[in-house]
Amino acid sequence: MTLDQISSARLFHLGGSSGAPVLLIHGFGSSRLSWVGTALGLAGYRVYAVDLPAHGDAGNDVGEGTHEAMACAVIAAIRELPRPFAVVGHSLGATVSLHLAEMLPQDISHVAVIAPGGWGRSIDHSFLKAFPELRQPEEAESLLHRLVSRKSLIRPQMVSHVLHMLEQPGRRDALRRLAAGILASPPPPLPKVENLCVIWGAEDRISPPDLGRLAAFGDQAAVLEGVGHLPHVEAQTAVNRLLKGFLPH
């Protein structure tokens, strides 16, 4: 996928008519809807979010399925986004955010990454491979439990939403290609922007935090105890507070 192509990613305005623009990028198997609580917590900002290719209401063209392909898809989808903007990404979306910061150095002022894929000690390959194959509520619930420290957060509505998304024509094949591309991609680059924030859940089982790497970021990094792979969901208040203290005013 190149920058001059029509993107299968889609941009949405989640709220706010004034203030600094902030772009939210979700993780693998999720959508812009995962950011509803974050958007509500970012009063005073113009909040936007994308649906990445093969997610939400986006198209299924994932190109080569690499992090760079996802970043190119986002760039093509955000042509009308006000500049400069801050970007907040989770997991795959965090990795895409780091590539965006490298590709759009003049456009991005702040980068906040939540559990960025490739920066942890490992990645749960089996989760990525199993997700596109989910068909029954019981197996979907069991897999999604890996995302959180508190299993009660995986509610029936979430399970139903995931299975409905997977039944969209071409969606499973697109996610299989994307999963393969993610697993073949190298770790994302360190951003050249000075304004970086890293947030991680101490109990993350999908991509366990590398505490040695995080220590190198000093007070730019926060590890939240008792939280799994979805800090912006499991510890919404704490994450929103960290983001509001970090993002431009």
UniProtKB/TrEMBL annotation:
One Pfam family in the UniProt entry: Abhydrolase_6
InterPro entries according to UniProt: AB_hydrolase_1, AB_hydrolase_fold
Keywords: Hydrolase
AB hydrolase-1 domain ranges (all copies): 22-240
Gene3D superfamilies: alpha/beta hydrolase
GO molecular function: hydrolase activity
Keyword Nucleotide-binding: no
Protein name listed in UniProt: Alpha/beta fold hydrolase
UniProt source species: Chelativorans composti
Lineage, broadest ranks: Bacteria, Pseudomonadati, Pseudomonadota, Alphaproteobacteria, Hyphomicrobiales
